[in-house]
Amino acid sequence: MSTATNSTLQQQFLSGSTPIPNWFFELILSNEQVTDSVSKTFLFLFRKTVGWNNRSEEQSLSQIMAGANLKSRHTAIHAVQILCDCWEVWKKTRGQKGEHSSIFEIAGVTDQEVINERMILTDFIYDTTCPALNDLRDLPPTEETAESQECNQCTSSGAIDALPSAMNALPEVQPMHF
Predict the structure, then answer these.
(1) What is the pTM of this model?
(2) What does the alpha-carbon distance between residue 159 and residue 121 come to, in Å, rounded to a whole number?
(3) 14, 58, 89, 92 - which has most CB atoms within 10 Å?
(4) 3-state secondary structure of 70
């Protein structure tokens, strides 16, 4: 009997691969509002960081486009903005190579609850979990935007009472530790 038949499917398939957290499938891949470019960019950056056991990774926009198979710079910029600025999955800072690259440091990717909260907040501000690039240009996804929109909408509509119940309805998962 070969060792392959004695091992689990995970042992057979995960050797030399990048395990993807279940919440990616539940929150991102199954969400019809999330574009394929955002999903592919997530997978590319996840492999470059978590998959290679790096807390951060320097990548240029061209490398992201090639690695995630994105056809335009605007599409790549949009995906990075969603992942870094809206959902805070990675923290993006200027790279060592200057304006031609960015450093992507693991941030909210370790905790589904953080991703849930950021996706809910993004939906609250933009009325979608994956706003268009033009929407992000018109109303940049900054902490100030989040705070002002949250205050304006919650006080005028009573939505602050609905936010905790919406968050409680989300599935519970264990945080990943690195």
Answers:
(1) 0.76
(2) 11
(3) 89
(4) coil
